[in-house]
Amino acid sequence: MTGAEYRASLNDGRSIFFEGERVEDVVCHPILGPAVDVVARCYDHFHTTRPGAESPLMGVPRSAEDLRSRIPMLHDADLVAHVTYQSIMTLTTAASRIGDPKYAERVAAFVAHVQRRDLRVTECITDAKGDRSRAPGQQSDPDAYTRVVERRADGVVIRGAKLHISGACLGHELMVIPTKAMKPGEEAYAIACAVPVNAPGVKIVNTSYAPRHADTRDFPISAKNNCPEGFVIFDDVFVPAERIFLDGEVKHATVFAHSLGLWERLGGLSFLADEADQLVGFAQLIAEANGLAREAHVREKISEMIIHATLVRATLEAAISGCGFGADGTAYPDELYTNAGKYHGAANYNLMVRHLHDIAGGSVLTAPAIADLENNEVGPLVRKYMAGADGDGERRLKLFHAIRDLTADAYGGWKFVTNIQAGGGLYAQRIVTRKHYDLEGAKRKALKIAGMAEGAAH
């Protein structure tokens, strides 16, 4: 698909809302439209006229090298392309682990449909949840978790809402899966399926961290790469049987959540690795501009940031190099290193940003606008007083704006929360890390050096 074809594909009658108003044309919307452009540029970047071509963003990896090669490609792509890949891998992994031929056939057909038509898929997992101390079947409002409300001979009708759905209004398909394990009696909530964005009854309420400033030069990062978050409502939506991947089998509900968690955490880990390097780069650049690069406490902070970046990168490499393989030959990252790395990167991100802010200083928030440089009266004075060790006031001003946009404004706030919550909160990653760590092996090593191993002399 070309970028123009993608834009045209969004004119399909979908129900999109933004800040209290229905959006009739998402392509031309002043806030959502630029996000459409980001996705369209990615389509054009990977477009080819070769007959039968498939987007390289959608292929299923079959080796560690396949896994590794996807990462820079996905980082050059937009977020919706990234979650499309994660959705394909979630369904493929879950189908393999469940082992039901019926669902495996449906998943394969859906994935082939998405690949063939070059569609974008977004992940719908987190439910409204209501009273979180109660299970799905114990809620005062049974719709607090997405559920089946009617069964027909040719499919089901679902009702509920899914929250925090990145790029929902920019895609073509919604991958709907259970958010957690279900138990007997909660069969209606054990539903996994694919729903077109324009299906009757689907309504998407959007928020965005996109800059609302007329001059986006002060937002060098978020102005070029932003994506709306969708609050997706399923208001009695019919799902045909061939698009259902789980229907009432509560014992398999958690398989989808775990499969998505694996691929989301790998994606999160890969982005955290790049972000850690970016933070180091900004810290060193602004330290040099401020004339503080040789100060002991500044060097110490940057050294700590470097160690953090190196460890996050190392866990990413270990997760890929130690990949496993499913029964169908699909390569999937090592669970232990993926979860441990994602946890470490996310848990320490805020500290690394704190170091950056401490090194940079208050001008991260209070620096004059780029447009002020162009004012004949104050522009030369802004350049004069913004100048640091290198004497270049404009360069130092732009560094402050980039740091603010990345870490201390709407986009920065989105990243603070997203790094913690994407792929499940930190607690979920601790659970999976513990599950896959060789705890018995660690105990044996401890007993051995204590002289308490089996067969050791006492």
Observed structural traits:
458 residues; alpha+beta; six-stranded mixed sheet; 14 helices; globular
Question: From N to C, what is the helix and strand string?
Answer: HEEHHHHEEEEEEEEHHEEHHHHHHH
Unreliable residue runs: none
Report the β-strand fraction as a percent range: 5-15%
**Oligomer description:** single chain
> Quick check: average pLDDT?
94
Q: What count of helical segments does DSSP give? A: 14
Helix content: 40-55%
What's the N-to-C terminus distance? Answer: 72 Å
The best one-word shape is globular
Structural class: alpha+beta
* Strands side by side in the biggest sheet: 2-1-8-9-5-4
The count of β-strands is 12
Radius of gyration: 24 Å
Largest sheet: 6 strands, mixed
Task: Spell out the blueprint of helices and strands.
Blueprint: H1 3-9, E1 15-18, E2 21-23, H2 32-46, H3 64-76, H4 79-98, H5 101-117, E3 121-124, E4 147-152, E5 155-166, E6 173-176, E7 191-196, E8 202-207, E9 229-240, E10 244-247, H6 253-290, H7 296-321, E11 324-325, E12 331-332, H8 335-360, H9 363-366, H10 379-386, H11 393-407, H12 410-421, H13 426-436, H14 439-449
Parallel strand pairs: 1-8, 3-6
Antiparallel strand pairs: 1-2, 4-5, 5-9, 6-7, 7-10, 8-9, 11-12
